[in-house]
């Protein structure tokens, strides 16, 4: 018996007769409850060096203005409420190309769901979210999320998402580190992420 055959035999023995068709119950992971999922979400978003602001529904425009301070050209996808972007310096249409997006300072979007335990924002590029490139090319991404869109964990988020839609999962600003652990932000996505949690 080769080493490969021996390893596979041990795996088969450990599985106790399970086959590819064996269904493993996954409901256990959906029973997680958190005392304050929105508070934990905000804490985890901040842990990623992203900026987070909590505000009331009547304060969104002011929070957006503060998050976009210092920018000039901002892409705002269709279906983002007009009152949120009324103070944006120069609202521009999606230029349609990566080169055009590179000349844009920021993007303002909504999101589909936020995940408390990971501090992740998920976009499925539906209403208010625009196409994927909008959230990947501009240097600043301001994302507005309602508190009731925050769920406890990844299984709860996946249960809400349509697997046939494109998805972008964002955990903090884009960052990478070299072998000496020198952190560089904005290499393959926005250098600045600002999440506004409403409610």
Describe the structure.
By secondary structure, the protein is of the alpha/beta class. The chain is 22% helix and 24% strand. It has one domain (32-198): Rossmann fold (3-Layer(aba) Sandwich), CATH 3.40.50.10420. It is built from 5 helices and 12 strands. The strands form 3 sheets. A 6-stranded parallel beta sheet has the order 1-12-7-4-2-3, with helices on both faces. Strands 8-5-6-9 form a 4-stranded mixed beta sheet. A hairpin with a 4-residue loop joins strand 5 and strand 6. The model has no long low-confidence stretch (mean pLDDT 86). It comes from Oryzihumus leptocrescens. It holds the Pfam family LUD_dom.
What is the residue-mean pLDDT, rounded to a whole number? 86
Strand order of the largest sheet: 1-12-7-4-2-3
How many runs of DSSP E, i.e. beta strands? 12
Please bin the fraction of helical residues: 10-25%
Give the CATH architecture: 3-Layer(aba) Sandwich
Number of helices, counting only DSSP H or I runs of 4 residues or more = 5
Pfam families: LUD_dom (PF02589)
Domain LUD: 101-198
Protein name: L-lactate dehydrogenase complex protein LldG
InterPro entries: FTHF_cligase-like_sf, LUD_dom, NagB/RpiA_transferase-like
């Amino acid at each position: 018996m080769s080493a490969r055959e021996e390893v596979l035999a041990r795996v088969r023995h450990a599985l106790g007769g399970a086959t590819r068709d064996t269904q493993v119950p996954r409901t256990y992971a959906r029973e997680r409850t958190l005392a304050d999922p929105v508070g934990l979400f905000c804490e985890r978003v901040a842990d990623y060096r992203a900026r987070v602001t909590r505000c009331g529904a009547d304060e969104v425009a002011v929070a957006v203005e503060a998050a976009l301070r210092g920018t000039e050209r901002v892409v705002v996808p269709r279906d983002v409420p007009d009152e949120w972007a009324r103070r944006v310096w120069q609202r521009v249409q999606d230029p349609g190309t990566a080169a055009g997006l590179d000349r844009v300072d920021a993007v303002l979007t909504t999101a589909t769901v936020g995940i408390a335990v990971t501090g992740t924002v998920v976009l499925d590029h539906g209403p208010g979210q625009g196409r994927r490139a909008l959230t990947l090319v501009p240097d600043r991404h301001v994302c507005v999320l309602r508190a009731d869109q925050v769920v406890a964990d990844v299984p709860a988020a996946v249960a809400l998402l349509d697997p046939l839609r494109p998805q972008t999962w964002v955990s903090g600003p884009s960052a990478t580190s070299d072998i000496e652990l020198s952190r560089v932000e904005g290499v393959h996505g926005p250098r600045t992420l600002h999440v506004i949690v409403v409610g």
